[in-house]
């Protein structure tokens, strides 16, 4: 077995590989850029080597620098993680030449399957059903428009070397095809060093389901079930689960056998994933094969008990698979939520900055429930603008899908992140969405259910009543402490009032609290009463409560006269007042937000790539105004309405903070 391996990656996947290597008694080497000097993967590894400036094309994907790190440390093998150099045949070739083992498939398989154009041709030759498209190289935007028209809109414009949603656009007409081609080409060049583009038919109402395969160099290949990856935004997976709520056993078997046949046709050896589009009649079409470990591999590990990273290392060491297809048993259900440094209230645009608070839920592994958090960050660390915005993968397991979802709801509510914008509220909203809960979703789920973006969660009356009861009881505890500190109260808690008014989300509840040593009974004006228990004390930022025996997890902050409460995706100001205070509060005028309707604000920290208009120019609704680049993605900002540009405050090359004014309108 290898004594030392180098991880040619960063972030959570580097940390994930280090954990398995440590379990196997293998020493690890991390590489890092200037931006990652204090990163978690650097702290976890046995050794760390600096390889250059923050941009990936000057550090993590520079083969010569990685090879030098290998030579300097004497690493015998390299795990590439995903992204970066994981599907780069030149890197695999360099390792082979140097006599260093690649913890991944043979170079020939990477060349055959890692390139999306080539892989589709091979799949077609093998009589695998594929989505209609144009596999040849496309020279320019006009040719892209011509090809798109021949295929028939809508079309998907994709980077041949792409992955993770980078270099992908959907075009519904010629203008979008022209624009999407150039943006995809730019992103592909920046992220992968390969700007080749291909176009295929965009299948409407699809489900994205992928098969995990595992093969060795002795001719053995097995499949480890499937993963449902249909909850996507901008072609980037957000929530995954295993198994799929849509497949039956016959379809699972057919997809698995086809995936293995394709892998064996190219001499595959390692962990890999064959992705399919599945329509409403369970017809499936080959999309691509990812010749690497997938981001969402933990859900497969949770339902099979197989450590995929360990298997990759053993295969790279020349070992035969120790398990057969008959040994693969799918047990229970697993969910994965990707925590992104994105602001869901600003169109999911990237957010950067310092994690002033980062407290994941406690990991656990019990017979009835599992909570797992794969992460590459820590409290006090920086989220950089140079890399992918994903900072953690929160996973839960239960005996069935309902248990896995409920476990995820509690885990998301227990996850504390402050200092950056993040998508935790959106993930919670999805977990409660009726379509998701029923399993009736497609890759268009987010676009269809949130067509105007995410504006937060509006809780139902019952959930509001539960929160009102909990916060009333919490306020009573806080009042007792305040009274004692001020000297207004000795040990006689009865001096704290029993009648209170709770307002939240436009609702008002008059309540009476009857407390005892075990908790409090909160009686509502309408006659209902709820029993509240919990161990919250003032100052705690997380409250694990029980309301009538059902768990309720609240993130707790302070606002004048009450709490800021976040639960189930909702962000609430909860005011708990005496009846007289509530009466006076109703007379107070509401503060109006400043008018920014005539300004274009930078929606996230980023770099101005292009300004498309001039001062004095009239613009139409939907017209491109400028392009902002952040976290390897180009974002085109468009006019919301007709107007005239009065002033432009920024130009190409300027780095802007969130809400800085890019331009003003008359």
Structural commentary:
Helix 1 links the parallel strand 1 (4-7) and strand 2. Helix 12 runs antiparallel to helix 13 (424-432). 28% of the residues lie in helices and 33% in strands. By secondary structure, the protein is α+β, with helices and mostly antiparallel strands. The chain has a nine-stranded antiparallel beta sheet with strand order 14-13-10-11-12-15-23-21-20.
Walk me through the topology.
Layout: E1 4-7, H1 11-23, E2 27-33, H2 40-44, E3 47-52, H3 63-73, E4 77-79, H4 89-98, E5 101-102, H5 107-114, H6 116-125, E6 133-134, H7 141-151, E7 155-159, E8 168-171, H8 174-192, E9 197-201, E10 207-215, E11 221-233, E12 236-242, H9 249-265, E13 270-278, E14 284-290, H10 297-304, H11 308-316, E15 333-340, E16 342-343, E17 349-350, E18 353-354, E19 357-359, E20 364-365, E21 370-375, E22 382-383, E23 390-398, H12 401-413, E24 416-418, H13 424-432, H14 434-438, H15 445-449, H16 461-486, E25 499-504, E26 507-516, E27 519-524, E28 529-534, E29 542-547, E30 550-559, E31 562-567, E32 570-577, H17 579-585, E33 599-601, E34 606-611, E35 618-619, E36 624-630, E37 633-638, E38 643-648, E39 655-656, E40 661-665
Helix pairs in contact: 4-5, 5-6, 7-8, 12-13
């Amino acid at each position: 077995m290898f004594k030392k391996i180098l991880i040619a990656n960063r972030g959570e996947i580097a940390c994930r590989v280090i954990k398995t290597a440590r379990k196997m008694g293998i020493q690890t080497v991390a590489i890092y850029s200037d931006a990652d000097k204090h990163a978690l993967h650097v702290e976890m590894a046995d050794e760390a080597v600096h390889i250059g400036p923050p941009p990936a094309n000057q550090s993590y994907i520079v083969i010569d620098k990685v090879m030098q790190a290998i030579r300097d440390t004497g690493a015998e093998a390299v795990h590439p993680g995903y992204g970066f150099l994981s599907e780069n045949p030149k890197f695999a070739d360099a390792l082979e030449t140097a006599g260093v083992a690649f913890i991944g498939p043979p170079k020939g398989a990477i060349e055959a399957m890692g390139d999306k154009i080539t892989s589709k041709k091979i799949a077609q030759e093998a009589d695998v059903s594929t989505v209609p498209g144009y596999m040849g190289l496309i020279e320019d935007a006009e040719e892209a428009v011509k090809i798109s028209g021949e295929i028939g809109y809508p079309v998907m414009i994709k980077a041949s070397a792409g992955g993770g949603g980078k270099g992908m656009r959907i075009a519904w007409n010629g203008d979008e095809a022209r624009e999407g081609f150039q943006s995809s080409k730019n992103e592909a060049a920046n992220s992968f060093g390969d700007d080749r583009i291909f176009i295929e038919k965009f299948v409407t109402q699809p489900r994205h389901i992928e098969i995990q395969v595992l093969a060795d160099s002795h001719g053995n290949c097995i499949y480890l079930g499937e993963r449902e990856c249909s909850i996507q935004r901008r072609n980037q997976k957000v929530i995954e689960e295993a198994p799929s709520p849509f497949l039956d056993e016959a379809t699972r078997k057919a997809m698995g056998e086809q995936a293995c046949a394709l892998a064996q046709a190219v001499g595959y050896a390692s962990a890999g994933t064959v992705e399919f589009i599945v329509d409403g009649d369970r017809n499936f079409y080959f999309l691509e094969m990812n010749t690497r470990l997938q981001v969402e591999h933990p859900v497969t590990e949770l339902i099979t008990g197989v450590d995929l990273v360990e298997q990759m290392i053993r295969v790279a060491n020349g070992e035969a698979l120790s398990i057969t297809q008959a040994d693969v048993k799918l047990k229970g259900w697993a969910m994965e939520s990707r925590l992104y440094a994105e602001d869901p209230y600003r169109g999911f645009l990237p957010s950067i900055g310092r994690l002033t608070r980062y407290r994941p839920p406690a990991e656990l592994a019990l017979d009835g429930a599992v909570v797992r958090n794969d992460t590459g960050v820590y409290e006090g660390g920086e989220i950089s603008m140079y890399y992918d915005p994903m900072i953690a993968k929160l996973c839960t397991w239960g005996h069935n899908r309902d248990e896995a979802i409920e476990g995820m709801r509690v885990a998301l509510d227990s996850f504390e992140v402050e200092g950056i914008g993040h998508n935790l509220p959106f993930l919670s909203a999805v977990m409660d969405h009726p379509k998701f809960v029923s399993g009736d979703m497609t890759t268009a789920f987010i676009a269809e259910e949130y067509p105007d973006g995410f504006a937060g969660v509006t809780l139902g009356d019952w959930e509001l009543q539960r929160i009102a009861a909990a916060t009333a009881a919490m306020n009573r505890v806080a009042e007792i402490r305040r009274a004692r500190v001020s000297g207004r109260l000795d040990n006689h808690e009865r001096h704290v009032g029993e009648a209170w008014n709770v307002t939240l989300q436009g609702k008002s509840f008059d309540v009476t609290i009857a407390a005892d040593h075990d908790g409090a009974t909160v009686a509502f004006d309408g006659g209902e009463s709820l029993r509240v228990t919990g161990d919250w004390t003032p100052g705690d930022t997380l409250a694990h409560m029980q309301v009538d025996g059902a768990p309720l997890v609240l993130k707790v902050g302070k606002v004048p006269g009450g709490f800021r409460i976040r639960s189930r995706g909702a962000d609430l100001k909860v005011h708990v007042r005496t009846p007289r205070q509530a009466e006076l509060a109703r007379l107070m005028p509401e503060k109006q937000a400043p008018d920014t309707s005539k300004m274009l604000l930078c929606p996230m920290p980023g770099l101005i790539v292009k300004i498309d208009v001039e001062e004095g120019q009239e613009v139409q609704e939907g017209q491109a105004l400028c392009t902002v680049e952040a976290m390897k993605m180009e974002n085109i900002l468009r006019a919301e309405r007709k107007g005239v540009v009065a002033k432009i405050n920024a130009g190409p090359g300027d780095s802007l903070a969130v809400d800085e004014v890019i331009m003003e309108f008359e």
